[in-house]
Amino acid sequence: MQKPLFERLRAAPLTARVASVDACVYFYRAATFLGWVQPEGLGQVQRWAYSLWTCTTMLLGLLYLPLGLTLTFAVHFDMFGPSEFLSSVQVDINCIGNVIKACVTYSQMWRMRRINEMIAPLDERCVTLNQRQILHTMVARANLIIMFFLSVYVGFTTTTLFASLYAGQAPWQLYNPLVDWRQGTRQLWLASLFEYFVIGIAITQELLSDTYPIVFLSMFRAHLAILKDRMAHLRCNPELSERQNYQQLVDCIKDYRTILHCCELIRPTLSATIFAQFMLIGILVGLAAVNILFFTTSLGMAMSNVIFIAAICTESFPLCMTCELLIADCESLAFAIFHSHWVDAEGRYKSAIIYFLHRVQQPIQFWAGAIFPISVQSNITVAKFAFSIITIVNQMNLAERFRKESI
């Protein structure tokens, strides 16, 4: 029996009614859990309680976590081993980036709701089985992407938790004035579970910041594919008049303009969040690699760092790939327009085709901070900085010096 909680992870039957907003189901569920999207139908007391929960998650994830890690370095610096220190530094730097991305994403949630409203009429254009299949597949894939990201992030935090407990220390050693994990097993478990809860809030915030671009860009790609299918069937029905064929072409042009408006709406948010991520990739991957190569002594901590590297790469690589595929979709749509049945059409139909073809030949491209094009090549370029960190540590013999000072 299929569980309703995970029913969106498979493409729905073509007989079922599916809308583009269904691709955001798990995204909005996570946002509701985090306190970012208030559920409808709440009473006054429930709204106050939900607002209190929103403030709690914001304070813990965006204020306490980076501040707690920084205070730990200031108060207990002499108690850190090299591997524990680097693990905490990785999380601390990532938290700073998460603060920027989460604040931008939370403040721009209205853009995502507006995109859902704007793109909803395009669902009504899906009349053929092939077009509906494209829409259904996109909805399932978008929800699967969110679950995949969640699995990677939870895998990192859970692995770190148990590896640290096995080693007899708190996983991230957050500054906690109420519970000192060094005072006994009970305190260790209390401090570790509290840290796991705080990190869980932070990774949910990061989940939303990292998945919304892929979800919405996948939505745009699906409607470009549907538009391509519609263009291939224009003027193929002999029962339609030239006036009706022209109106169908105009509808296609209007739908493409709707997709462009949606892209422009999400562009400022996407530019800011991915720019912050690009700035962090090389540093974080470099620190994690140095930790694995020079300081990690247990298999559990090595696995934790490997999963951390996978999580960092997951935050940017799928989005970069999606942006390149979006450009390829625009080129594919241009070919579909050119090869459509327009040769023997009337003059105004040909004029509209020429305008549409000219407009589509300008690909939809996104930039990170108006500096880097969001592409796989850009992602590789910023990731190469990790090798520079490893080279510096190796050539300056910093690892050996750090080991001697920590003894």
From TrEMBL:
One of its GO terms (biological process) is signal transduction. It is found in: Cell membrane. It comes from Drosophila guanche. Pfam families: 7tm_6. Belongs to the insect chemoreceptor superfamily. Heteromeric odorant receptor channel (TC 1.A.69) family. This is Odorant receptor. The chain crosses the membrane at residues 52-77, 144-167, 188-205, 274-294. Keywords: Cell membrane, Membrane, Olfaction, Receptor, Sensory transduction, Transducer, Transmembrane, Transmembrane helix. The lineage of its organism: Eukaryota, Metazoa, Ecdysozoa, Arthropoda, Hexapoda. It is a multi-pass membrane protein. GO terms for molecular function: odorant binding; olfactory receptor activity. It comes from the Eukaryota. One of its GO terms (cellular component) is plasma membrane.
